[in-house]
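dumping this here so i dont lose it
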């Protein structure tokens, strides 16, 4: 079948908060014809499925709906992002999938209009992140009904109105885990327990007050029982004891990975830590004219952070369109030592601006009580920073960017260590 050939000024791939905010800001800033492609039937990303409150921020509109946490609900946030993009003149096309690349900034798509080949002067990737399912986490057992990730749970409850079960176990103690617990309660389930392999840490009073179920720390899931329907979750506790929690529903939360398939197909360099495209503070990837934003880069930050990155990519893209962008061949990689997992941005270009908020975001694989973050290059210490609070797995920790001017652009990769 013949593909329709078209050209646009900016092509944004992904209709979540990052992609919508990038497209809206670029269109409003005079970037020309800005087109956004979203593979789902509706744009808005995961916030569409999050009925709790806590969403909001600049440029998202003012939805009337509020949730139990206060603030805008996820659907209202998503609707505001969509309205802002359409109002700015973005050509928003849903149910369109990008299936591959056919040149530096040419992609192949399939959708209701058939097959197309779209060439853009600049491309912004905003394909987001997904949770790893139970199989990818190597949890043994059969494949009974009743096993979900957070996204699958929210889609089943809020989109399809499905009956989920009666008794649930939540695997993961992070904000998204508590969002899953809220969804389970909305669906009328009793929460048997929340399970995490991380050690016990002090919880905020608000979280303790609204939990109302046991939190099993230092506990590993060793298997699932049940044939046609889940009947239990097998656990191993930190002291070696084993137990089975009787339930008919389990939700695996967190453990996000970037949706990097399109970036990989395009030959973009991927960062080994984040597993998303390697990028600098201007959101430039290894391919000229291809930018990336949102949770594709660092799974996973909040919708507000993703939207802020979408807005922040506007200036670098406009510079590129105006022919004022310098090649990114002098990017210096940033690398981390264990137990740190990754840093974002993970490349530094001498002429690039400071990262969003003037700081880098890191993750740790285990709890660190008030660590020192040490930045060095070629054995030379560039910066040392003491964190005032413990660093916790699954939570962002931040590193100031005041050391950038001391980097040797021709030197070895910059290393970040937690002591």
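and the seq i came up w/
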């Amino acid at each position: 079948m013949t593909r329709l050939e078209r050209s646009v000024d900016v092509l944004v791939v992904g209709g979540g908060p990052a992609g919508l905010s990038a497209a809206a800001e670029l269109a409003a800033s005079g970037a020309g014809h800005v087109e956004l492609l979203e593979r789902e039937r509706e744009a808005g990303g995961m916030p569409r499925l999050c009925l709790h409150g806590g969403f909001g921020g600049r440029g998202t509109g003012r939805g009337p709906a509020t949730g139990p946490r206060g603030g805008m609900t996820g659907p209202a946030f998503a609707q505001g992002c969509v309205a802002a993009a359409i109002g700015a003149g973005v050509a928003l096309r849903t149910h369109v999938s990008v299936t591959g690349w056919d040149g530096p900034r040419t992609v192949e798509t399939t959708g209701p209009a058939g097959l197309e080949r779209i060439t853009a002067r600049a491309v912004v990737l905003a394909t987001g992140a997904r949770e790893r399912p139970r199989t990818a986490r190597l949890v043994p057992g059969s494949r009974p009904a009743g096993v979900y990730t957070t996204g699958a749970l929210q889609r089943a409850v809020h989109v399809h109105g499905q009956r989920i079960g009666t008794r649930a176990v939540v695997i993961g103690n992070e904000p998204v885990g508590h969002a899953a617990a809220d969804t389970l309660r909305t669906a009328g389930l009793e929460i048997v327990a929340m399970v995490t392999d991380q050690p016990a840490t002090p919880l905020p009073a608000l979280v303790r007050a609204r939990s109302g179920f046991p939190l099993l720390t230092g506990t590993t899931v060793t298997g699932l029982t049940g044939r046609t329907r889940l009947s239990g979750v097998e656990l191993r506790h930190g002291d070696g004891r084993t137990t089975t929690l009787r339930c008919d529903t389990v939700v695996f939360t967190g453990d996000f990975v970037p949706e990097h398939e399109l970036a990989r197909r395009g030959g973009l360099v991927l960062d080994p830590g984040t597993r998303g495209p390697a990028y600098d503070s201007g959101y430039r990837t290894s391919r000229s004219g291809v930018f990336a934003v949102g949770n594709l880069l660092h799974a996973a930050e909040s919708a507000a952070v993703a939207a802020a990155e979408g807005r922040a990519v506007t200036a670098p893209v406009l510079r590129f369109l105006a022919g004022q962008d310098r090649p990114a061949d002098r990017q210096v990689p940033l690398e981390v030592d264990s137990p740190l997992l990754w840093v974002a941005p993970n490349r530094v270009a001498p002429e690039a601006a400071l990262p969003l908020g003037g700081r880098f975001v890191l993750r740790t694989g285990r709890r660190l009580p008030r660590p020192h973050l040490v930045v060095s290059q070629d054995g030379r210490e560039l910066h040392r920073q003491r964190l005032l609070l413990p660093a916790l797995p699954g939570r962002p920790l931040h590193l100031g960017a005041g050391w950038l001017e001391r980097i040797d652009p021709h030197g070895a990769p910059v290393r970040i260590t937690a002591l």
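Residues 288 and 327 are 7 Å apart (CA to CA).
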